[in-house]
Amino acid sequence: MKPAAFTYHRAHDVADAVALLTDLAAAGEDPKVIAGGQSLMPMMNFRLARPTALVDLGPLRRVPSMTAISERDGTLTLGALVTHHAVETATLSPDWAVLSRTMRWVGHRPIRSRGTVAGSLVHGDATAEWCLLALLLDAVVVAEGPAGRREIPAGELFHGFYATAVDPDEVVVEVRFTRPSPHAALTEFARRHGDFAIVDAAVALDVEGSAVRGGRVVLGGVAPAPVRVPEAEAALAGEAGDDRWAAVADAAVAAIDPPDDGGTTAAYRRRLTRTLVTDACREAAGGIP
Ligand SMILES: Cc1cc2nc3c(=O)[nH]c(=O)nc-3n(C[C@H](O)[C@H](O)[C@H](O)COP(=O)(O)OP(=O)(O)OC[C@H]3O[C@@H](n4cnc5c(N)ncnc54)[C@H](O)[C@@H]3O)c2cc1C
Questions:
Q1: To test ligand 1's pocket by mutation, which of 24, 39, 45, 85 has the most ligand atoms within 8 angstroms of CB?
Q2: CB within 8 A of 201, min separation 6: which ones?
Q3: How confident is the model over 163-179, as pLDDT tens digits?
């Protein structure tokens, strides 16, 4: 299928993009920002999205901060137009290496070369790797709108099925990750290589010496949006090892109420959760002395 008719507008900078969104909406249009187009265009082709105007952020790639990757004082900052591939190939410190390792799970190379971090977070798919990573590593989304800039913590970003806290007249300018995690991993199961995951699991372990003091467990594909699982996180502390990871996985499975849909039963999602949480814990613990 082809998309419904729309007008096309190129934004020259962030202020221009916000002004275009505001003016088009005031004129009765239903405008949308387009970045890599790797989610929005398929949605438009299937007529699941019907914006009447597109505001293209492509020219903003010339703005250095929009494609910058920088680490400073325990924070990793990614410009909104940083692509999945740029992160995959970046030389990040061990604190953030989980981001580069995870990118191999995102679609295929052409998708990773075009798709952006901010686009993924605003799209808000419940299994999107960036959405899980945002919760895992305490991301803060910085969005600019007509009233100026505001910061949205990852914990307040996801409002449900493909719904996020970013308003239609806002442009995300950068994403900051504020929780360095050298012992972290994301694992997932998809039917075919490059597909979205059916379930994915991300784990970050807080390690002191050789002991695990706590950490994060985040799941995708078990609820309308990605979720942290406090019950599983409570089971993380103690001596690292397979018994502990089994207890964490048990706690995760007991805490979730996954959907039965699209030929994937809730029972199957639970089984995947058990396996993936265990695997993510093992991988995250790999470097513990
Ligand atoms: C075959 C295929 C397989 C895929 N597999 C995966 C996968 O396994 N995992 C995964 O996570 N993704 C997958 N994707 C999606 C891909 O990662 C997209 O790149 C990503 O979801 C959206 O990024 P984008 O830059 O392309 O955003 P776009 O498609 O341009 O936009 C997506 C949404 O974000 C909004 N938006 C974009 N940028 C901004 C901004 N700066 N400020 C405000 N709003 C913004 C748009 O208005 C739109 O609502 C797949 C896509 C395809 C086609």
A1: 39
A2: 132, 186, 187, 188, 217, 218, 219, 220, 252, 273, 276, 277, 279, 280
A3: 999 999 999 999 999 99
Give pLDDT tens digits for 227-252: 999 999 999 999 999 999 999 999 99
Whether the pTM exceeds 0.85: the reply is: yes
Residue whose CA lies nearest to ligand 1 atom number 50: 107
> What is the 8-class DSSP label of residue 83?
B
Question: What's the total number of domains in the chain?
Answer: 3
Place of tokens 């502990």: 244
Which residue out of 38, 63, 157 has the highest number of ligand 1 atoms within 8 Å of its CB and is therefore the one to mutate?
38
For ligand 1, say whether the CB of 42 is within 6 Å of any of its atoms.
yes
53 — phi, psi (to 5°)?
A: -150, 140
Rounded CA separation 148/247 (Å): 46
Q: Is residue 1 part of a domain?
A: no
Instruction: Please report where in the chains the tokens 């920088």 appear, as a residue.
Output: 70
Per-residue tokens: 139: 């991301």
Same domain, 107 and 133: yes
| Ligand 1 midpoint to CA 237 (Å) | 35
Residue 14: CATH number of its domain: 3.30.43.10
- Residues 133 and 218 placed together within one structural domain of the fold: no
Tell the residue number behind the tokens 């929009």, with chain if given.
66
| DSSP 8-class letter at 261 | B
Q: How many CB atoms lie within 10 A of CB 82?
A: 20
Structural domain for 118, as ranges = 66-177
